[in-house]
Amino acid sequence: MIKGGLSKIERNFTDAIDVKKLCIDHGLECLTLMGDIIVDAIKNGNKVMFCGNGGSAADAQHLAAEMLIRFRPNINRAGMSAIALAQDISTITACGNDYGFDQLYERMVQALGKEGDVLVAISTSGSSENIIRAMKQAGEMGISIFGFLGTGGGVALELCDEAFVVPSDNTARIQEVHITAGHALMEYVEDCLLNEGFLQLQK
Q1: Is 163 left (phi over 0), alpha (psi -120 to 50) or beta?
Q2: At what angle do helices 55-68 and 171-195 cross, to 10 degrees?
Q3: Which pLDDT tens digit goes with each residue over 38-76?
Q4: N or C of the chain: less Cβ packing under 10 Å?
Q5: What is the 8-class DSSP label of residue 105?
Q6: What is d(CA 15, CA 12) in angstroms, rounded to the nearest whole number?
């Protein structure tokens, strides 16, 4: 065992709790605003697109799956229209080889998005070029743009219609809070659609 290893692990937990408390102190109204727009988009036959890099790409896929399949095991409801823009490896490598990785999400938004859709851009730095380009493309198409950001929000903050910014520059802490916020957002959207009778429960 590494000397002091347990105390370092405990510090990770306490740091994570502290950052989440800061988020509560700063206010979480942005998540309900995002949720209301997502609810309207789903009701109008539109979809939610998620994108991110690295761990944030995994979060994008995670949240899309929560919408497509289900979020809570005790609520068996119809799927909600969503897609993670980190597509299959053939698409990713083709774009990287032919056009450059910076264009990947921009091209996905251009090809798959439509007016009235929602783009959720997840970036710990808020400065990733492929995320910025996707957000700009979404803006040109009448797609609502939400950011799950950190480190002050970066360039991406200026492109957001709504943004949830984690008050930290620690990548691990930012990602941990992003998935907590994502789960809270998914639950809010699911509850709204169920309460309005738009989502049907299944046997």
Answers
A1: beta
A2: 10
A3: 999 999 999 999 999 999 999 999 999 999 999 999 999
A4: C
A5: H
A6: 5
